[in-house]
């Protein structure tokens, strides 16, 4: 099992991502335990960022559109699979926070942040 995966960034820079620590003892140096990723970091994270974008688009389409959307989830980087939404069991855990501000925080106004009300309002 490798201890780190080496990803290539868009500018050619490489970054090593450490695997979770393993129990037991082992050699001190990385040596042959450094695995080169089969994808760039951007490619590896592509499916994860696409999933996050799709979730955010769904919340933005709500009738009472929130002013703030916060998604929290872990991402595991795998040398072959790329980015994977992390899970400690069969299902992935996602934290979602939606926030509305102002006097009509829960109202039916579907305008986004910075959008002005219609002239007839």
What is the helix content? 10-25%
What is the overall silhouette? elongated
Strand order of the largest sheet: 2-1-3
Runs in which pLDDT lies below 50 for 5 or more consecutive residues are: none
- Structural class computed from helices and strand pairing: alpha+beta
The sequence of SSEs as H and E is EEEHEEEE
Work out the radius of gyration: 21 Å
List the total number of helices: 1
Number of strands: 7
How many strands, what sense, and barrel or not for the largest sheet?
A: 3 strands, mixed
- Work out the oligomeric state of the chains in this entry: single chain
Mean pLDDT across residues: 73
Range of strand content: 25-35%
Euclidean distance between termini CA atoms? 63 Å
Instruction: Count structural domains.
Output: 1
Task: Provide key terms for this protein.
single chain; 121 residues; alpha+beta; three-stranded mixed sheet; two-stranded antiparallel sheet; 7 strands; 17% helix; elongated
């Amino acid at each position: 099992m490798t201890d780190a995966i080496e990803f290539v960034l868009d500018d050619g820079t490489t970054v090593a991502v450490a695997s979770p620590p393993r129990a037991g003892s082992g050699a001190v140096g990385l040596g042959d335990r450094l695995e080169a990723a089969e994808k760039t970091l951007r490619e590896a994270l592509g499916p994860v960022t696409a999933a996050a974008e799709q979730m955010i688009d769904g919340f933005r389409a709500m009738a009472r559109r929130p002013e703030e959307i916060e998604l929290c989830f872990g991402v595991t980087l795998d040398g072959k699979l790329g980015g994977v939404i992390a899970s400690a069991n069969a299902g992935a855990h996602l934290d979602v926070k939606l926030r509305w501000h102002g006097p009509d925080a829960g109202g039916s106004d579907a305008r986004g942040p910075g959008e002005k009300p219609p002239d007839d309002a």
